[in-house]
UniProtKB/TrEMBL annotation, chains A, B, C, D:
It comes from Nonomuraea phyllanthi. Keywords: Copper, Cytoplasm, DNA-binding, Metal-binding, Repressor, Transcription, Transcription regulation. CDD domains: CsoR-like_DUF156. GO terms for molecular function: DNA-binding transcription repressor activity; metal ion binding; transcription cis-regulatory region binding. This is Metal-sensing transcriptional repressor.
Amino acid sequence: MHGYSGDKQAYLTRLRRIEGQIRGLQRMVDDDAYCIDVLTQVSAATRALQAVALGLLEEHISHCVADAISTGGPEADAKVKEASAAIARLVRS
Amino acid sequence: MHGYSGDKQAYLTRLRRIEGQIRGLQRMVDDDAYCIDVLTQVSAATRALQAVALGLLEEHISHCVADAISTGGPEADAKVKEASAAIARLVRS
Amino acid sequence: MHGYSGDKQAYLTRLRRIEGQIRGLQRMVDDDAYCIDVLTQVSAATRALQAVALGLLEEHISHCVADAISTGGPEADAKVKEASAAIARLVRS
Amino acid sequence: MHGYSGDKQAYLTRLRRIEGQIRGLQRMVDDDAYCIDVLTQVSAATRALQAVALGLLEEHISHCVADAISTGGPEADAKVKEASAAIARLVRS
């Protein structure tokens, strides 16, 4: 069980919608849609993916990281460092 | 025909690979994968999407925008503004 | 006292270096430097600012948020939500 | 003369305002301001820097890149590639 497990169905629904956006992008490219329209849809899919990431991150901090902090010990510090590295990857992607 | 039309198959291949990444994310969530591992894959998919966008943008500038500039007239200015707005959406997404 | 207080001097040094980068940008613009060279320096300053933000965020989570979680109660949840909102602003900027 | 030369004073004014934001950040850190408030100001400064970059880029494309395209020859292609690399650095920073 992880932070997002309670909202698993909601995350799956969002990821399926993003999969639909990516398939829509394939249709646009296949139909020679105008470049700027393709780019607008790429930006929309990117934002949807980042919203999923931000949701997962919030639940990760409030569950997994919080549990490690409540338990204490060296594990708490490792969890904060791990979450910080994930935040850095997200900010830079 | 648009800037990316010559590379259409390459773009479709990249978008299909991204679709595979999104389906992989659904499997990870469905299998209760560790949050940080899910986030790492979300970052990878986001970067792949942005690489597609940067490729489309470069071809758009070197074809559609360049053609409008070569032709001259008010259209050239409109194309530069439109491309700039797409770049801004990309930077902010 | 906050998460970053122990590293205050290091943060001040980094912020002074960023201030120097911004003044360098003013000199470049004033000297009519080539646009792409100005943009390269803007990207460098942006990355330096984001590195400061990621550092502050890690210390905030490992101190302020961790303290609230250890204490427990509604404050813990509020701190996680506040940190998540700051992460979202960072990802979207 | 470059794309931004006509707006040089406006860019200098914006960069001086960003310099003020960075000095404000130093005061906040020096005064032990709350981490989240510091982060909010870092996000604001980052957005202001990126707005400067987007402005410079638009003027670069509509002047330097457009001139190279109008002149034609291998230089046009080099300018588009150079601008695309700058856009990529911006998207990834």
